[in-house]
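Please review this one.

:::
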Amino acid sequence: MSSHQPAQTPRPSLLRIPLFRLLAINLAVGACAAALLVGGLLWLNPGHLRELILADRAPGVALFLLLASFLITFGSAAMGSAIMAQGHKEDTDKGDGHGSRLALQELTQRTHTH
């Protein structure tokens, strides 16, 4: 019996994939925003929220549900905005944000000249 094993090709790390790295970074940004918001809510105590949570028999469950819902909301919003911004091409010459209007004008001028 030979102890020769087939050579395994190393799998690339998920963080080397640009799209996955973009989503992971933006998920982390959304998670930080969620943690800051939940911490701020507990610190400011609007509507006696902190007192209501801490008066419960299992305050960890309420804190987990609050943090998880904010994490899902802000994480998905940050990831979604990053994905939608991928198609946005910034023009360094003109910062007025009217690139699509300019392209439409060029297209209509081309059709009128031909």
Notes: The chain has a mean pLDDT of 83. The helical segments are 18-44, 49-54, 59-84, 99-113.
